[in-house]
Design brief:
Cytochrome Bc1 Complex, Chain D, domain 2; mainly alpha; 2 domains
């Protein structure tokens, strides 16, 4: 039953996102349309604020994550080519914020949007639950990395521009909604960085937009190449080849 559900969701996510948009409830689409021109790093109130104050139910989080596992994989590792990001080990607050932003239209993600709706996974309680579950997953020991052409330059750029928010090892900050970027796939980092710089990722931190506005293409490649090689602590990393026993 689970394998059939996962396959169906994967096909829907990859091939029929546009059709799923049209099939959603009018109220959901109306909310999305009303908010999709807004640019807000931290939208006020709403599901984000509610979910942050709910006690998580890990069993429900596991059930909700089954929907997510079609694209992000049962282990939460995404794809090394950056098609889907690694979610495993991400801060709970960051996951809650990004899910809420996608649902209310403050972050554009047409592929994920239909599968993140309340009609698919539930309300704020489900956001709290799945965020808690994902944050506890062990991370991929072999994430996708960059070309390795100028890591010294990338390290200097990172130390001069990124440490204040993302931390010396890319660990982020759960209390401030700064994402963990260590262990993330290089190609995903590159795409999101380009979208932030171009204004396409509308819920980006304005401090970051300002920080990177003068980065050259080489700067971009070098700093993200360096970031992709930052590793979380050993206790956060799964063994090579680990399979999530919750989805056997």
């Amino acid at each position: 039953m689970k394998k059939t559900l996962t396959l169906s969701l994967a096909l829907g996510a990859l091939l029929a996102a546009g059709a799923a948009f049209a099939a959603e409830k009018a109220v959901d689409q109306k909310t999305f349309e009303e908010n999709k021109t807004k640019k807000e790093w931290m939208s006020q109130g709403g599901e984000r604020e509610e979910a942050l104050h709910l006690a998580p139910n890990k069993e429900n989080g596991k059930d909700v994550y089954e929907v997510c596992s079609a694209c992000h994989l049962p282990e939460g590792w995404g794809q090394t080519d950056g098609t889907f990001p690694q979610l495993a080990g991400q801060h709970r607050t960051v996951i809650i914020k990004q899910l809420a932003d996608i649902r209310d239209g403050h972050r554009d993600n047409p592929t994920m949007y239909p599968f993140a709706l309340p009609s698919e996974i539930g309300g704020p309680q489900s956001i709290a639950d799945v965020a808690d579950y994902i944050s506890g997953l062990k991370m991929n020991p072999e994430n996708g990395v960059g070309p390795g052409t100028d890591l010294a330059h990338g390290k200097k750029l990172y130390e001069d521009n990124c440490v204040r928010c993302h931390g010396a090892q890319g660990e982020g900050d759960n209390d401030k909604f700064f994402p963990r970027i260590q262990g993330q796939h290089y190609e995903y980092l590159l795409r999101q960085y380009q979208w932030i710089k171009a204004g396409k990722r509308r819920n980006a931190n304005p401090d970051m937009v300002e920080q990177i506005k003068n980065f050259t293409d080489k700067d971009t490649v070098d700093v993200l190449d360096y970031v992709s090689r930052l590793k979380p602590s050993a206790d956060m990393i799964a063994p090579v080849g680990w399979k999530n026993p919750d989805f056997k």
